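New to this. Look over this protein:
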Amino acid sequence: MKSSDTPTISLTPSHIIEYLYCPRFTYFEYVLAIPQYETKNYKVMRGRALHDQKLENNKAYLRKRVGAIDKYLDQYLTNAFVRGRVDEVLLLADHTMAPLDYKFALYHDKVYHTYLTQLYCYAWLIEDNFEYEVEKGFLVYTRSQNKLVEVPIKTNDKKLVAKAAQAIGDIIANNSFPKPTKYRKKCLNCTYRNICVR
């Protein structure tokens, strides 16, 4: 993206995830400034508290398993569009880098889109800040005995989040009312379902 296309706010992976869930989420929260009251969610708060605790456990073992030859812990990274705190940035033996993120969650034999999008954002940030290629990322599910899952990250995955960042910037800058998600099932659990007219 061009520097002139920079969004009017500094985006986080959560902004990208919300936009990809439904573009109208961006409109309600950041154009109309209607909060979603995420902090009242017990699981979110509990997960955040235990997240920091888990960072101190089993680190060396996990890094050895993925072939890391160096590490950068708790990295707060930014570029012209997004910002985020990566639990670990790993330098691998093939001289690529990879984000490693701890999740206060159980592993159910699949990786949810929210986690994938977060890793794609981290890959974008790592490439911009460290100037190493990122071809994979890792998730650690702390409620499944620290199960380690490797996630491939392709060029198109990084382009996906960059394109979403641009779209978010357009919605906010132009106060535009986007089309809703085409997946109506998502509306059932949406924070804004009572004020959104399809």
Observations:
- The chain has six helices and five strands.
